Amino acid sequence: MKILTSEDNKRTLFIYNMRDLCKENCPENIVSCLIQSSQKVDNDCIKHIVFSAIDAGVVFFLTWGDRAEYLHDLVDDLIENTDSDLTHIVTTHHEDEPFEDVAWLFMRSTYFGPDKHRYLAIFQDDEFDRDELIKASLLMAVNSP
Amino acid sequence: MNLYTDPKYAQQLFGHLSPNESRVVLGGSGIILGSAVLIAVAPEAAMTAIAAKAALAGKDIVQTAEKLASNEGRKILTTQENRSVRSLERQIAKHETKIAEFKANPTVRPGMENMSKEQVAAQQAKRIEHLEKEVKTFKDNISKIKDDK
What is the ipTM, given to two decimal places? Predict the structure, then answer.
């Protein structure tokens, strides 16, 4: 797990590999969650992540990558098939958009509350460590004034 | 206060120009401010005209226009903010398509085969409610980006 924090301390981003969150709980007080998926996902792992994230406060899920729409529909299924009313939780999929734009949307345009914001980004297969563009895009979204 | 129809603000925008210089004529409905300036009520058209006039009058007028636009709750969006707006607009289109398709052909998910008709109907209503709330959130977020709230 890695943590990026803006200089003014207003935005904190937690970055996980998906496999590491399959059994752990998400950090607390998160507002938005971005999940990257380019390969088949373990449905049980996604179920654990989604409900753990909702327990942590997430109200906005974004998916990105080749399998973003599949993952989005999976998250929708989970949200809509519980006894609790979770219809206030928003989900989006961005398989056809540059990561730079999705990163900005994720950290700057999904939550507008006045407090300090904490975000969660989850990547399959160490994508964050392998892709410099992903790293640079998230750094910019965290640090830009 | 309406930036585009209030003589006080027209004076701020065009007061240092001669009547001929400040004669801005735009299409659409508008009102005459004093004897010199006709400003369209449509905000976008007015802003375009103000920006065009600024090319002649210098950057002071642009700064005034931006300040006044900001006072109106509007702001000049950055490239990234514009991209966020477009991305949210794409999500609105995608989700509205999902709503239309689901209403036209409500599906029964695996595991719902043994549910009663009432339970299936409730589940399908929940699906539509979820999609509609999402569309509303996307629209609200676009407004917040544009208003900088």
Answer: 0.93
